Protein 1
Amino acid sequence: MLSPAQLLQEFITLWVVIDPIGTLPVFLAVTQGMSAAHRRSVALRAIVVSFGVLTAFIVLGQIVLDALGLALPAFQIAGGIVLFLFALTMIFGHSKPEDEIAAAERVRQTSVFPVAIPSIASPGAMLAVVILTDNDRFSVAHQALTTAMMGLVLLVTLAIMLLAEPLHRVIGTTGAAVISRVMGMILAAVAVDAVLRAFVTIGALPGLGM
């Protein structure tokens, strides 16, 4: 049984890797121009998808990674590339919001990418839930506790995304566009940093003083 200190450590780890606050600007950017109902649908679908993906990694992740021989740097590089490509779309953006029919299709698409993956269920989050249960991978109780704590963090993430609607109303379309581009630049830097750290880990680059 995990001690309270270990439970707190796991919760903090899950909070950091899922990053509910950091999901907000991504959610605002990809749902810009959508109706309130569509934004709620994106948020709910994204949480359901994220929960399913991360739960699968808790139960089967370590077994699959061991079988495939995949390491953390591979996930970091892949995730960094995906985040960088999405950051470019945030920076350059779309000219105008689509009409209602296109918006309905965007609900299905954006709830999975990029809101659920890789913003919420990021490569780091996938690896984190695997590592947290690695030493006790066949303990149902430990996996259940980790899943419960992950679910709590995801509920907070959902609440933040649902509160994005009044925030969006306050900042308006212009404000959302500015946030999208500024956060796109920050996200691009985060993506490059993830790739560089992975190269340092595998010894392809010297330490970068990070």
Protein 2
Amino acid sequence: MAEFDYDLFVIGAGSGGVRAARVSAAFGANVAIAEEHKVGGTCVIRGCVPKKLLVYGAHFAEDLKDAQKFGWQLSEQPSFDWPTLRDNVLKEVDRINGAYTDTLNSHDVEIYHERATISGPNEVTLASGETKSAKYILVATGAWPHIPEFPGSKHAISSNEVFHLDTLPKRVLIAGAGYIANEFAGIFNKLGSKVTLINRSDVILRQYDQSIRDRLLQISMMKGIEFRFNAQFENIERNDDGSLEVRMSNHDPITVDQVLIATGRVPKTDGLGLESAGVELDDGGAIVVDEYSKSNVDSVYAVGDVTNRVQLTPVAIREGNAFAETVFNDTPTTVDYGCIPSAVFSHPPLAAVGLTEGEARNQLGSIKVYQSDFRAMKDVLAERNERALYKMVTDADTDRVVGLHMIGPDAPEILQAAAVAIKAKLTKADFDNVVALHPTMAEELVLLR
């Protein structure tokens, strides 16, 4: 008889957990996975996928207006129906959930649609009370929205609930200054809501280059989004008409219909039973792992946001794949966390890879910066007064491109290919030697001066 019920038991069927389970099974491991919600995890169910679909939906507000400058005459005033967009997005989420489930089934991964906790170094306990043993346990439970405690915080929602709103709020207050806050600010603004964004500091998207984030702030304000900086919640009270009265430090009270808190996400380790196996956590509740995603307990591994290394879906997928290669294919594999591209699907979107100008100056000392500040051809004809900004940072001594930052239409789509060049350590001269693809916005990358 086998010593354990499974070779691998995965807790959490998000992007990282599903990849680890599927690839491990392909290598011949006997694998089970437990998920208390839908298969697919944060990105597919309540994150980047449904949010990007909302971004597409919101952008039609500008596209329909711009179309008139291109000769399209609309026979009647366009109107927007929130339930239609919401329900179609959730329908797509269900489809992807089914696809993920089919992938696991096709690889003979046993799925437990219930919560699982760790009850020992080689044992998990299901919500039903049943226990299962495994040679290895992989924790891939991701992260969860952080909701600060203050009077009336129960009246606010997180990014988990925002996809299920019954009605589109006419007035919405968003707390935060990162990806989620700025993306939903753009979505609600384009769908017709009055948006106010508050933040406890005076900086948005701190990890991005200052020129790019300043440009987003400028354009967002032009679009009518109000920013209140150096503001912290004091309390939220519900009025008799259902609206919310929000009081905050350093600013006047504001009445809104919805409050969305997007102040970050924390590793989802509470109540997981990690102490039963002696697994070490850091001060933020994340599982401490080595370069092979192994915790201080030899049989327990962790990948994705629960480790708080880099909270990005593609990174979790790579970590899941590397885990399977290391443990079940006898091929020790690590993930390279250098030069990871990222994007914010704001209005307009921004994208970046490599060092910001400030980081480059601190690390390299002598640098050269090249910029292109321009209006996209489509925006010129549409008489839309928004300027794109592309910025390249190079090492002055070697001419190597160490950072690329951009804001403007389709910036994330353009940056993906350009990130390959940065990762390959190409020089500014290598960019200059490429013939421009005209007329495109992307050609600015090989014309920077």
Protein 3
Amino acid sequence: TGEPLKLFVAEIQTPKVQENDGEPWRQLPLSRLAEANGEGFFDAEGAPQGKSWAPMSFPDPKAKGLFALEISGDAMLPLYRDGDVIVVAPEMALRKGDRVVVKQRSQSLSVLLLQQRTETAMEFRPLDQSLPPIRMEHGEIDWVGRIIWASQ
């Protein structure tokens, strides 16, 4: 490269802001969905925590609290396949029909469709449309994050 070793190593160690059509990219925390079901992966608001997250570049520097989950297996076909990555925004407003990630208090993460939201509960539809809707009281839910992007 013609660079002195010291400068070359400094370039490798210093993360640069990538650009996409003039817009900067940033690093999001990424984990496999199946692994993120364990203890200690999220705080009470749904923000990633701990050291088990890998970095992933994403071109939206303005949104806050984003994280990415990699789908494993074929349980979410045809919407998501093994290896697809979904980007979740736990701080974004939810709308009827949104695909969301739901963290229940005593259970693992679920990817569902938001059907209805009332003062006391939320109703979701499983990705498998043949299954009945799921109703959860607000007290049963730790957090809900809107899926804003998916690699496919």
